[in-house]
Amino acid sequence: MRIAPSSHRRGLLALAFAPLLGVSLAGCQKAPVAYKGMDITGAEYARGFTLQDAQGQVRTLADFRGKAVMLFFGFTQCPDVCPTALTRAAEIRQLLGTEGQRLQVLFITIDPERDTPAVLSTYTQAFDASFIGLFGDAAQTEAAAKEFKVYYKKVPTGSSYTMDHSAFSYVFDPEGKPRLVLRHEQSAKDCADDLRQLLQQFA
């Protein structure tokens, strides 16, 4: 007949094996990912868009499943912020090496009045042939900006105008979920490090 161990003995056994169990359990847990950008995993905004590309095809995030997506709102006549952001995006793809093929960069215009499909296509491909420009009418543009909490405003300049706007890049994982917001001042290397970590989770 098997004799059950006393409560005292059970307590000693538990204390003896606790460190071993702790090591075992810790080994099974993944270390949390520390991003340099802002982690927005689980966000209730920046969930998607419905716009058109330069060929007139309706595009949504679902079109890019399997790739990480980096998305930026701007306009082609922007003198500084937009070209800087897209130059950085091209550098990020290069820094990622072969993994750069798993990154799709999208540029959404906040100035559809002047950014025609032809203008958008020429502009985005000047930075990288894989970049895609997207546009909508005034209402669609406003809806997309609102979903991403993007600020933009037309500012008169003499006989013309410019556009004031926020300058964040949004990153989606290969399943189409919002994961990161990259600040304009972050370096290409820091952004590439973040994207590499994100892509490794979907290897």
UniProtKB/TrEMBL annotation:
UniProt keyword annotation of Signal present: yes
Thioredoxin domain ranges (all copies): 40-203
PROSITE patterns per record: PROKAR_LIPOPROTEIN, THIOREDOXIN_2
Disulfide bonds listed in the record: 78-82
Pfam families linked to this entry: SCO1-SenC
Residues involved in Cu cation binding: 78, 82, 165
Coiled coil regions, renumbered to chain: none
Keywords: Copper, Disulfide bond, Metal-binding, Signal
MF annotations from Gene Ontology: metal ion binding
Residues annotated as signal peptide: 1-26
Family in the record: Belongs to the SCO1/2 family.
Name by which UniProt lists this protein: Protein SCO1/2
Organism the protein comes from: Acidovorax soli
